[in-house]
Task: structure prediction
Amino acid sequence: MKEGAGTPGRRPGWRWAGWGLAGLVLTGLCLAGALLSWPAGEPREADAVVVLGGDGNLSLGRYARGRDLVLAGYSKRLILFYPSADELRDARARVPEVEVVACMPAPSSWGEAQAVRERMLTDGVHSVLVVSDPPHMLRLDYTWGAVLGGTGLRYTLVATSPAWWPGWRWWMSPDAWGFVGSEVLKLGYYLLKYRFGLNVNNPDADSIFAASPQPAACPQNPVNRGQTPIKSPN
Result:
């Protein structure tokens, strides 16, 4: 009788453990957005503003954010990755110095950082503002910190303010769900490939999880559409 009487008493403990686990999962989801967007900083004067290439409609605000930083006086130079024809036309009409990266051998966030590092080292650019979307910030911080490490070059991440990103309530936005999920996977991939050197070279994570197709590889002698050419990474 004592054993049977004690059995029901253990059930509430399991029930509370289940609620506790669910609470931890929900807390983790809420914190995930804050963690991914945390590295973003306030803009400061820099030698160039870099607008990274985007994944479809979710990234349309990147160009406007970068252009507005230049117009606000933070820099005179704007570097664009894969701009649309309208963006390029607007930039050339309003921004003093426009540079365009129209293709890269291996399009990715890592490749973009390498391309900019090459330009910085060869053209005397010491600091950049890097513009992208909020949940992209953590992976960018790891990427740019690794690529620019030991060079003395400086970067500041500046986030856009898209309507689909309601901050810590990101889980209420279907678009944010997709972005956060892909960023978690990409960050894991980057750590395995670039931090631990595991053989996961092809295909690149950005092309695996991108919301839209990546640009085609460069032709043998790519034509740059910007006013000043910028080299692609080897």
